[in-house]
Amino acid sequence: VTTYWCERAWLGAAGFVDGVVVEVDGTHITDVTRGAAPHGAEQLVGLTVPGFANCHSHAFHRALRGRTQQQRGDFWTWRETMYGVADRLDPDTYYALALATYREMAVTGITAVGEFHYLHHGAGGAPYGDPNAMGHSIIAAAHEAGLRITLLDACYLSAGFGAAPEGVQRRFSDGTVDVWRDRVTTLAADVTDPAVVVGAAIHSVRAVPHTDLGAVASALLDAPLHVHLSEQVAENTACLKRHGCTPTQLLAVQGVLTERLSAVHATHLTAGDIALLGNATCNACFCPTTERDLADGIGPSRRLADAGATLTLGSDSHAVIDMHEEMRAVELDERLHTQQRGHWTAEALLRAATVDGHRSLGFFDAGQIEPGAWADLVTIAAASPRTAGTGSDAETAVFAATAADVTSVIASGRRVELDTEGVGRALSDSISAVVAG
Ligand SMILES: [Zn+2]
Fold it and tell me: What is the pairing mode between strands 414-415 and 406-411?
């Protein structure tokens, strides 16, 4: 049993309060009280919040940071560069790259990651001896970095509304939805660690034929289900041409819209799409730093939430890994879009980055500092050059702090070593092994 004393901590509905004593037994919180620091308690000085949930990650995209930002073009030209890295990965190099990326996440206060995983197979699409070798590498990397992980195993069968996968895309495809389902149910059965959830993903309505959407959605009935949705206008246009409806409508008809679904991006939606996602109480996973980097557009976060959807957040391509930036970007993007301020409160954004995010990943007992929850405690400096004089409240955590202000991370009861130099070396080494030139 370890006792922590938080100088000031966020207790959800009670807000930020001074002097919080947190008892941790193993991986979970057993007691939360208020008061002075007990003798022998580990002191967490600053603002302590629950661990962040990074709900949408492609770990290998971290290798593209700084290497694609000078490009012209759009999402589709960026994707060609991304495919080049994908084609050079194997279970060993991916383990090293995912471990370095997850270590970067851990030192920023992320304690659980939703890994949207589609690079399944070897060269030309040939399965490895263990068809889940890549998935096991990613899970092992998260464990080593101290993160809980929801491996969202993505079904990818088509390069676009029936077109056959080409080149590296063949490594994403299981050929048929039945082969995908057999592989992912085997993976789910193999996993016994409570810090690991295996979920399913529809890569997109481009990549899974409409007749197979229901089979993907029903493969792991109790697990999270994620889908890339309407990130690009071109997807909507192609879907309308092929099916006479929007991607959201297509998912609705196939029974995919439920409360366990996370619609990732949800950028270019009609009013009808927003109503469908809201009425089904889906999660809408926004990835603002990637969406701005890829020139995707600004999604209707406020209207989705008003319709009944739950906002969650992810760093997706990892152009930036900083959940403070993801949180504030939701509000700041709405301001740019509407020329009005005050759409999202700081506390609502904190909920998106913590309790709501963890819940969308299948960790229902996480993201809150309360008895019974996973012991995730992230402490933010309250007197850094960025945070000093800001009032030490939710606005400090969301609108002032950056990832560099995180001074202590307890993840699933274990202290994360804030070895930023070591993380930097691990990133350099693992990235130089997989980038060209
Ligand atoms: Zn993505």
Answer: antiparallel
Interval between CA 400 and ligand 1 midpoint (Å): 27
Task: Please tell me the pTM assigned to this model.
Answer: 0.97
261: CA distance to ligand 1 center in Å? 15
Q: How far is the CA of 317 from the centre of ligand 1 (A)?
A: 7
Say how far residue 176 (Cα) sits from the centre of its chain: 27
Q: What is the per-residue pLDDT across 100-124, written as a single tens digit (0 to 9) for each?
A: 999 999 999 999 999 999 999 999 9
Burial class (CB in 10 A: 0-12, 13-18, 19+), 39: exposed
- Residue 216, CB half-sphere, CA atoms under 13 Å: how many? 32
- 244 CB-near residues (< 8 Å, 6+ apart): none
How does pLDDT run across 328-338, given as a tens digit for each residue?
999 999 999 99
Tokens of 62: 């971290």
Phi then psi dihedrals of residue 182, to 5 deg: -60, -40
- Cα of 228 from ligand 1 centre, angstroms: 6
Q: Name, in order, each residue with C-beta under 8 angstroms of 129's C-beta and a sequence gap of 6 or more.
A: none
